[in-house]
């Protein structure tokens, strides 16, 4: 059974004992790992106790079909809950999952961690059909959810954020939860133990290089129809290990923001008002480019661009064609539309 929204957070805080098998999957591997850690912490007194938490790989469980069930039904030394954590799982685990669902553990837990699984994934399908399985998708943070992650993380270090710093961090972070946490920890270390307020200059000084900047350049190039910059930025993000799916989703998120701003402008707001009304608001360093894009794109053409991005993502997932080439072609088509 797939869990969404507030049911996910409620389950992580207090796992439902009628669903002792949990499948965590999605493109945000950091969030998959973080949620698995949260579940283990909620279930056992000491997550590092090897008698309470067993770890196996998806490859091992796929080859040894009885192994997963045996581990799940084993009794923890000293009593209490026992957790089996299956890492790096994929569709090869489908048969082992079917066997486990047929004979679910009564006293232990199985947490399966997988990467991105499309809608036809055998592992995902068998898990979603079973009432005894909790299925949780893990996608990259965005919007208010990302703002909450940033503010909560820095608050734990005694830090507060200026509006500009929050807007900047919201645009730079979010592709991967563990990466986001790591960058925020680095920022907290930079600010020192005395606490205080993180200003825009602090955020830029600490988090100003690497993939986020390349992605910003790529997104602006698409929106403005700048072919040379697009080719350069796309090559850079691929070299930095960012997947085509992540690129397409980042560009789609940007175009959704453009669409919201364009809608506000049709209702009488000026460009500046519309950009400030977005959550997070457009940071001032990005505002000139965003404003120029609003001049080039209307709501109809923005809707067409978003549909093209969604179609490109589905094609990347459902065909054997090179995802990098599909992504590049979609972005070039949108950039071409920006030049008209």
Shape: globular
Strand content: 5-15%
The quaternary structure here is single chain
Largest sheet, spatial ordering of strands: 1-6-2-5-4-3
CATH class of the largest domain: Alpha Beta
- The CATH topology of the largest domain is given as Rossmann fold
DSSP helix fraction? 55-70%
Structural class: alpha/beta
Total E-strand runs: 8
Total helices: the number is 17
Within CATH, the superfamily of the largest domain carries the name P-loop containing nucleotide triphosphate hydrolases
Largest sheet: 6 strands, parallel
Could you state the order of secondary-structure elements as H and E?
Answer: EHEHEHHEHEHEHEHHEHHHHHHHH
Mean pLDDT: 89
- Spans where pLDDT lies below 50 across 5 or more residues: none
Descriptive report:
- With 340 residues, the protein is α/β, with parallel strands linked by helices.
- The protein has 3 domains: 136 residues, Rossmann fold; 64 residues, Orthogonal Bundle (Helicase, Ruva Protein, domain 3), CATH 1.10.8; 128 residues, Up-down Bundle (Zinc Finger, Delta Prime, domain 3), CATH 1.20.272.10.
- It has 17 helices and 8 strands.
- The strands form 2 sheets. A 6-stranded parallel beta sheet has the order 1-6-2-5-4-3, sandwiched between helices. Strands 7-8 form a two-stranded parallel ribbon.
- β4, α5 and β5 form a beta-alpha-beta unit.
- α11 runs antiparallel to α12 and α12 runs antiparallel to α17.
- The radius of gyration is 22 Å and the shape is globular.
- The chain starts with a strand and ends with a helix.
- The mean pLDDT is 89.
């Amino acid at each position: 059974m797939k869990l969404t929204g507030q049911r996910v957070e409620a389950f992580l805080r207090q796992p439902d004992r009628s669903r002792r098998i949990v499948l965590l999957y999605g493109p945000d591997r950091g969030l998959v790992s973080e949620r698995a850690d949260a579940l283990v912490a909620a279930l056992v007194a000491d997550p590092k106790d090897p008698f309470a938490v067993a770890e196996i790989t998806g490859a091992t469980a796929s080859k040894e079909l009885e192994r997963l069930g045996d581990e799940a039904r084993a009794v923890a030394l000293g009593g209490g809950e026992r957790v089996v954590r299956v890492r790096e799982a994929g569709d090869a685990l489908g048969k082992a999952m079917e066997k486990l669902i047929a004979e679910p553990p009564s006293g232990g837990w199985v947490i399966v961690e997988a990467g991105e699984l499309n809608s036809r994934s055998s592992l995902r399908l068998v898990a979603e059909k079973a009432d005894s399985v909790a299925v949780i998708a893990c996608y990259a943070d965005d919007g208010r959810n990302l703002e909450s992650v940033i503010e909560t993380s820095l608050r734990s270090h005694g830090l507060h954020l200026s509006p500009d710093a929050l807007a900047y961090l919201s645009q730079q972070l979010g592709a991967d939860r563990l990466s986001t946490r790591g960058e925020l920890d680095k920022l907290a270390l930079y600010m020192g133990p005395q606490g205080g307020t993180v200003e825009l200059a602090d955020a830029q000084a600490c988090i100003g290089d690497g993939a986020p900047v390349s992605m910003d350049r790529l997104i602006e190039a698409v929106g403005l129809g700048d072919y040379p910059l697009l080719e350069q930025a796309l090559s850079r993000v691929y070299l930095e290990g960012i997947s085509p799916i992540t690129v397409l989703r980042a560009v789609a998120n940007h175009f959704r923001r453009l669409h919201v701003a364009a809608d506000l402008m049709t209702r009488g707001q000026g460009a500046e008002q519309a950009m400030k009304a977005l959550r997070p608001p457009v940071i001032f360093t990005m505002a000139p480019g965003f404003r120029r894009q609003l001049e080039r794109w209307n709501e109809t053409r923005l809707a067409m661009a978003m549909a093209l991005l969604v179609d490109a993502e589905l094609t990347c997932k459902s065909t054997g064609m090179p995802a990098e080439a599909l992504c590049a072609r979609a972005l070039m088509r949108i950039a071409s539309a920006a030049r008209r």
